Amino acid sequence: NPSQLVQALFNLGEMVTATQSVTPETLQLLGEEMGFKVQVVSPEDEDRELLESFDLSFGEDEGGEDDLERRPPVVTVMGHVDHGKTRLLDSIRSAKVGEAEAGGITQHIGAYQVTSEVDGVDRTLTFIDTPGHEAFTAMRARGAKSTDIAVIVVAADDGVMPQTVEAINHAQAAEVPIVVAVNKIDKESAQPDKIRGQMTEYGLVPEEYGGDTMFVDISAKQGLNIDSLLEAIVLTADASLDLRANPDMDAQGVAIEAHLDRGRGPVATVLIQRGTLRVGDSIVAGDAYGRVRRMVDEHGDDVTEASPSRPVQVIGLTSVCGAGDTLMVVEEDRTARQIADRRNARKRNALAARSRRRISLEDLDSHLKETSQLNLIIKGDNSGTVEALEEALMGIEIDDEVQLRVIDRGVGAVTETNVNLAAASDAVIIGFNVRAEGKATEMANREGVDIRYYSIIYQAIDEIEAALKGMLKPIY
Ligand code: GDP
């Protein structure tokens, strides 16, 4: 139980309370102390093990060299706000799709493909249709490497700005090659050469200066040099990446967007990464599962299969998966369901664990930095002492920025209702000459609610005062 663990940790020289987080190393030490071997696994490792138990793996192309075929590069557009990311994505779409498809695009599904002639050959490119590095980073954080090339847009009349630098950092951290689009060159105040100079400071040296980054001057507004930009992307991909995938395996990909559609139910836009997805396939996407009932492309047309780098809307999941979730085809519906169920259970556990991390007097310091309010619930053996205690507590002289609030008070033992309220409002419970009911103690342990017992008023005052001043040391 928690107090035994706290005691064991104390013996190991770690001063912690039951609601505090400890490092993986400490956990392992604690395990040894208690006669267990603790293995700390990352969520990714855990998921890999889960898939392995079904004889599945995500992220590897099956077969050998001969099974791999060229696939289009997947491109993300990043850059500072108002530098023209959205306009550029629109402009590429209308320039390229408009030509091929009368009527153009009818749907924004989160990604689209265009075809452009480079060196006399038709080349396809996939663009992620949500600009900004937040989406990019969110997906990467979830282990989904969804982008091959980053286009960093810099407005020629504005120059390198904080989010430009952030975008560069994100792309470089992900080891994704960069093409720089120097935008708004239609403007009189445009200084494209200045941009080149600035970008050099971040390790992006233009080819014309002897570096290996391609810079293209464009106007997203006027549709100027869009073809050159597409060419630069293709050439950069060819020069630094070997983009190939096995189209002849069960499909795997990443969900880049998902929502609940009124008529169609859960809809997920999936970027296929390897294999070919077909109508009728059993799929699991994050903690959602189902069977591909329909697939729709960015033109709103139904498709029956989708090959690597192809984005498609998938209809047929029984619930909405998360953006950044991996999708994979499995042999049987049952397997898809089992994997989804296990992931779901894990997600619920993780959520529950997080919600248990309530406030205790010891971590008050950091808590107060966020909320600057300490909520208390006072229970005492008679109304006189409860009142006296409350009055004394409210009299504590504290920093004006910190507030002490008694949200509930009463006579009698600490009950489950008290614990519930404390959990819901991040409160600490004070029991004066009373104890907690057995069930309430259990619940407080489970929920991580701090209950403090006192029988001397000034002791209670001293401790609360010390906690408020951030001086309280853990008690064992
Ligand atoms: P985002 O925040 O990076 O997505 O930027 P937007 O695409 O929304 O563009 C911001 C503003 O700059 C809009 O008013 C655009 O019309 C304008 N803009 C974008 N590209 C160009 C361009 O090439 N030339 C000019 N003159 N304006 C542009």
From TrEMBL:
Disulfide bond among keywords: no
Main location: cytoplasm
Cellular location(s): Cytoplasm
UniProt-annotated binding residues for GTP: 79-86, 129-133, 183-186
GO molecular function: translation initiation factor activity
Record keywords: Cytoplasm, GTP-binding, Initiation factor, Nucleotide-binding, Protein biosynthesis
UniProt keyword annotation of RNA-binding present: no
TM ranges: none
All copies of domain Tr-type G, residue ranges: 70-242
Signal peptide: none
Role noted for this protein: One of the essential components for the initiation of protein synthesis. Protects formylmethionyl-tRNA from spontaneous hydrolysis and promotes its binding to the 30S ribosomal subunits. Also involved in the hydrolysis of GTP during the formation of the 70S ribosomal complex.
Family per similarity comment: Belongs to the TRAFAC class translation factor GTPase superfamily. Classic translation factor GTPase family. IF-2 subfamily.
Protein's name according to its UniProt entry: Translation initiation factor IF-2
Organism: Dietzia aurantiaca
Residues of the full protein shown: 374 to 849 of 947
